[in-house]
Amino acid sequence: MNAPAGSRVSSFGYDAVEDTKKRRMASPTIKSEDAELNQSKRDQLNAQANDALRNFAICRWAVGKHLDFVSRHSFICDTGDNRFDTDVQDLMDWYSNDPKNCDVMARHTLDRIVRMTEGRAVVEGDHLLLPLKSSHIQQVETDRLRSELGMALDGSEAHGVKLNKQGAATAYRIWKREVYGGYSNPQDYPANQVIYHGYWPTERSDQVRGIGLITAGLNDFCDAYEWVDLTKAAAKLRAAFGMIVTSKAVDGLGDHTEIEEATPILDQFGNPVACETTQKYEVEFGKGPFKLELDPGEDVKFLTDDSPSVQTFDFFKSTIGFALKSLDIPLCFYDEGLTNFFGQRAALILYLESCKTKRRNLVTNVLAPLTRWLIARWIAEGRLRLPAGANVSKIPFSWHPAGCPYWNPSQEINADIQAIGAGLGDWETIYLERTGRDWYRDMMRLKRQQQFLKENDISIDPKLIQMVQIMTDPAQMGGTNPLSQLPMGGLTV
């Protein structure tokens, strides 16, 4: 039986590896990601990414939106010793909020350092922090982590990272960046003295150096930027010749300036013998309607077109959507008119799910080691007294991401209260999800506020009193009131 005309008969196998001459085929040679992206290509890629971040507002917005959701965290210490926990959190607030305490250059708070670390990892692939003996932090950008060899043939070094036989990092080679380009004075820092944060978007197990998350969308960002630039140029060109009116009226529609233009009359030998003066008009296009005096037989046409067309603009938005997918950001964040309230809500829920792994990586790679280092230093300096029987390396603490505000407060607050009453959640967890703050500390602050109102005989909204009673009445909470377990007792109104 003959196959129909135009059909393709294929044997068992994978169509993706068939060379149809219609698409570019990848090289069959498998190399590590570090070999695919050698030092010169890495420098070029990072330069391209930084250029897009500097000049294209949508690219900067996308990275900033990623950082808003991923990099913001609040610290909670939870040893069960209220005195120690409060002291640790107070010290962390003191350290974090003053650049002179945490930044060796005295420029950035700890929150800003963490945000910049995550930002550099998203754009350039990785970023390093050096905890110093002075308790300050030194940031090291990715281009300073490099080596003369690039990748050693025996696998002992890859782009500035020295490796053992198992491929684990043993040291990082950091260079000094010269003012006018180039690098000098390399120094090796042991891996246990360096905090390293990076991304592995291709999920390669033997990859050593990170690759920026926006790499997959970088071409689309650049294409969109060039499209905008060319479209603006075309629009400006059309606007420069916005309207030219030919009229038989004596007076023009707007102001114009009459000037004399002299044309020399030459003799047979090319020497000027006289001068002929003609009247011309000089028009400024930026001053509204104008009139041009045209000679008989002359005409001027409108310079117009229909670009950008609706189809072109839709394709531009699709290109932006492709680029945003490299950061898992839905297109409706860029154009809120693409969907309704429920579509936005669904997109937000899915995006928050994609942020969980990134947040966990940031805590594991950066915030957790920084916290352990700081607590050990504060204990050594006498700022903290370790609880009896506690181990400094096993002090329980956590960094919680910033909360997501209510979209429909009246419905969502009631739903949270019902979930707590049904045992599907607890006060602390739900409060962290909504605010990102420490529930216990805020409840104790609420207790002090309520005590102040009571002592000064100040009346407040009865509905607010009812809400506080719901939060603190064990009978309404199935007999379980977390506040009753605190040393200072429950909240009273």
Structure report:
A four-stranded antiparallel beta sheet has the order 4-5-6-7, with no helix packed on it. A three-stranded antiparallel beta sheet has the order 3-2-8. The protein contains 14 helices and eleven strands. The longest helix has 40 residues, at 341-380. Helix content is 41%, strand content 14%. The chain is of the alpha+beta class and 493 residues long. Helix 2 packs across helix 3 and helix 7 packs antiparallel against helix 8 (310-325).
Rg on CA atoms, Å:
34 Å
Which spans of ≥5 residues are poorly predicted at pLDDT below 50?
476-493
Order of helices and strands: HHHEHHHEEEEEEEHEEHHHEHHHH
Question: Which descriptor suits the 3D outline?
Answer: globular
Q: Which percent band covers the strand fraction?
A: 5-15%
User: Helical content, roughly?
Assistant: 40-55%
Structural class: alpha+beta
User: Please, how many helices?
Assistant: 14
For the secondary structure, the number of strands is: 11
Oligomer: single chain
How far the N terminus sits from the C terminus, by CA atoms, comes to 89 Å
Give the strand order of the largest sheet, numbering strands 1, 2, ... along the chain. 4-5-6-7
- Average pLDDT confidence is 80
Largest sheet: 4 strands, antiparallel
Layout: helices, strands, pairs:
Blueprint: H1 33-36, H2 39-55, H3 57-70, E1 73-77, H4 82-96, H5 99-102, H6 110-124, E2 126-131, E3 137-140, E4 157-158, E5 161-163, E6 169-177, E7 183-190, E8 195-198, H7 218-240, E9 257-266, E10 272-282, H8 310-325, H9 331-334, H10 341-380, E11 397-401, H11 409-421, H12 427-435, H13 439-455, H14 462-472
Antiparallel strand pairs: 1-11, 2-3, 2-8, 4-5, 5-6, 6-7, 9-10
Helix pairs in contact: 2-3, 2-7, 3-6, 7-8
